[in-house]
Amino acid sequence: xxxxxxxxxxxxxxxxxxxxxxxxxxxxxxxxxxxxxxxxxxxxxxxxxxxxxxxxxxxxxxxxxxxxxxxxxxxxxxxxxxxxxxxxxxxxxxxxxxxxxxxxxxxxxxxxxxxxxxxxxxxxxxxxxxxxxxxxxxxxxxxxxxxxxxxxxxxxxxxxxxxxxxxxxxxxxxxxxxxxxxxxxxxxxxxxxxxxxxxxxxxxxxxxxxxxxxxxxxxxxxxxxxxxxxxxxxxxxxxxxxxxxx
Length: 246
What we know:
Order of helices and strands: HHEEEEEEEEEEEEEEEEEEEE
Oligomer: single chain
């Protein structure tokens, strides 16, 4: 059969090369066209709102991974509970509230007594030292914080403490003639942080300081005097740079 006869039989136009096309041998495999497995081209008349073919890589329906997430949550709670039990045994003077998350480590030295409120999170290494008492409220975050306590240090609920230092003791007498004598009671005074206080990285809160509710202590600040509520302080000596009520 000639090329023209084949085109008539199949309804196709002849190949415009001027050469005849050889028919495939009997039993030979015929390769599919290059676009045989490709998705159909979009219909130019379908419009922008026309439905498209389903995507094989589409995300699963919401809720499919819920059992896995629930298992992870339960496993995390078991880990936190195990770490809390370990630290209670290691430090008899440590009291932990409900659902405290010890993601890092805790270290107590010199007989300090520490209580940590419900749902507070401990990141990295958080250290407490001294013969005094530290009380940390609920829903706080302590991130590599160091607290030296010879009297009392109180941290209110929902406080954020970065890798800062709270020290209620200057350890030495200020008077030059008595500087090498045993420290007098004047070298120590309690520290108190009200609720929702944020102390930035590298800050130092010294003895006898009270920081008011909602206030922020900027990174590297040395706090030597009381801080009123709802302000931002920075620098050494500290200075107020913002008031939230203005």
